[in-house]
Adenine deaminase
Amino acid sequence: MNNSELIRVLPKAELHVHIEGTFEPELMFEIAQRNKIDIPYKSIDEVKQAYNFHNLQSFLDIYYAGANVLVYEQDFYDLAWAYFIKCQQDNVVHTEIFFDPQTHTDRGVAFEIVLNGLKKACVDAQEKLGITSHLIMCFLRHLSEEAAMQTLEQALPFKDQIIGVGLDSSELGHPPSKFERVFAKAREAGFLIVAHAGEEGPAEYVWEALDLLKVNRIDHGVRSEDDPKLLERLVLEKMPLTVCPLSNLKLCVIDDMADHNIHRLLKQGVKVTVNSDDPAYFGGYMNDNFHAIEQALPLSQDELKQLAINSFEASFIPESEKRKWIKHIHAL
Ligand code: HPA
Ligand code: ZN
């Protein structure tokens, strides 16, 4: 079996994907039309030309604008269902999906509309495609602590439908410490904890995510490499990093895929995983990310398998399910 075939047949868990970042231009046009909402593009080509980013913020401005056309429960269902079809194509058998309630509630869309649409797609994906999933609600870190606290309050009645909380949006200038009290409350309520840290921000933000937010996983975390003491701790604690190679390239976190540190981190024993982040904007879904690193870096087949094994080990599924998928991978 060559590497391409191996990537195709490997069962994989996706642990870092923003559902608003899976919004393909074709679906965006369709939903904009039926909701009679103007978008600042004349054609799908024009949309794709706008997807030329030089940092995280230049992407976020366009990403939030795209989400403006999502209004009804059916819109959120359609968005998530389209992503599940991509999962099926890439043999992603389990996914833990981020959503940003504030992007929608701040426009007057009810929290329940967002959650119900996504949840119905998750139920159908399990029934019709055999794909399991969890939802993780992210706080927008460029907004206030108070706004995050209000969002957490809104989520409490739906605790059984949301496995965890995370932290995303503009990293620089918005350290994890800003949300220490919100995450303490979320932990008390029984949510699992993740946070974006060390994407554009420094290794110091990863320390804060570990020590102040008490995360179960770090999203991105690639800047941890700047700090040997931090790397030591990540290895010791088996702390997963949800790495997103194509995202890092598109947002200029790295200049060249050959410089990506996912292989170095893996060799040092860090529990790194491969993820797509915002695949409609960054040029590819799960398998495209695997192909991009496989082509640029000298990854062995055992290492490709280890990345898939890590994705299940780092996931929030029951131990018995983890063992089942890992056994499946060892048998390939
Ligand atoms: N970083 C921070 N916030 C985000 C991202 C990301 O890569 N994608 C969507 N929101
Ligand atoms: Zn992300």
